[in-house]
Amino acid sequence: MRCALIGDVHGNLEALKAVLEDIATQDVEETLCVGDVVGYGADPEACLSLVSEHCAVVVGGNHDYAASGRSSLEYFNPYARRALQWTAERLSPKAQQDLSSLELVAEMNGFALVHSSFFAPERFDYIFAPSQARICFLKQEAPLAFFGHTHLPIVFFDTDPITHSSGPEVTIDPQVKTLVNVGSVGQPRDEDARACYCVYDSDRALVTIRRVKYNIEQAARKITRAGLPDILAERLFLGR
User: N or C: where does the chain have the smaller number of CB atoms within 10 Å of the terminal CB?
Assistant: First the structure.
């Protein structure tokens, strides 16, 4: 089985369309999403519509919950808070209901999905370092899991000590718990401005990180025209 995993779309319609076009060339059976469909970008409703159409399963992210009123905006920095207020004002009642109904964890056949961490997923803790991955592994039941939230594609292995890989292809050992960050479609932060997602091939036990060029200029122009903070447009060009 081959499946595509996307996440952290953040209202970036140009990036999402480019990624979906690339996924169509990858011979995958289904596409899954690890959350944060909205926030930051200028096309929240259009992105939610496309994700709902193309993704078999979507788990909720912190921006999804905040934009739909399910969690507080106090958690966010001023730029993110402003974008979420703007987003919430423009989402239809149905879109808000769809976002607020998303579950935080999804168990699939042989793997699991979460936006942040399996340890108190409602807290939306970040996993940047092995020590944070270790806490997540304590609650992770599936041998393999995919997550997002940091916008940084990386794979952690529950070894002693915990190891990790940032390579474009990673072989999965079924005997070792593994945690894969799928990267960000709409706002990459690893200094590569291209949209990011991954493909998981269960037959080959292989995870491949894919990068896709998209029309950053158009996405950034929409952000500034919408009156959203300029930094949200500028960072798209920097990939951080």
Answer: N
CATH number at residue 234: 3.60.21.10
- Burial of 74 from C-beta contacts in 10 A (0-12 / 13-18 / 19+): exposed
Closest Cα partner for 137 from 198, 109, 178? 178
**Is residue 70 classed as helix, strand or coil in its secondary structure?**
coil
CA–CA separation, 53 and 177 (whole Å): 31
Maximal CA-CA distance, the chain: 50
Domain that holds residue 158: 2-238
pLDDT digits 0-9 by tens, 127-151: 999 999 999 999 999 999 999 999 9
Q: How far is CA 96 from each of CA 68, 82, 110, 115, 135, rounded to the nearest angstrom? A: 5, 17, 31, 18, 31
For the stretch 37-77, pLDDT in tens is 999 999 999 999 999 999 999 999 999 999 999 988 988 99
